[in-house]
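Good morning C.,

I know you're traveling, so I'll keep this short. The sequence:
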Amino acid sequence: MKKNIEFHNNHVFYFEDDLEQRILSPLSCIKEHESKWVLEFDLPLVDKKDISVFVDSGIITVEAKLKETYCDEHRKSCQYEYFKKSLTVPSNVDFDKISAKFVNGRLTVVLPKVTRGTKIKIED
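The tokens, ready to paste straight into the viewer:
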């Protein structure tokens, strides 16, 4: 039986007007675990300082920028690639505990689920 996942894509890609900019299309993955959701993005050659992750009005957005510099005999030029992905966060996420880490070109965003509380034993 296939499970209905609450994540929804709002914006897949974001394009700028500059012809020198290209879209960065990294591999990404959404995994659901019992106690959390995990988002993974492969962003090789991107610096940690060029990545932004933010949540606003129930939407999590990941943005990344890659600057590539090319040199030849006659000139030096720069080219930028952008990535932007926004997802609607499931209602069972604890927004205050969302965390992100960037290791070896992989961005991992952990969205813990809200705990249900403590089960109370009913005595005889």
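Safe travels,
E.
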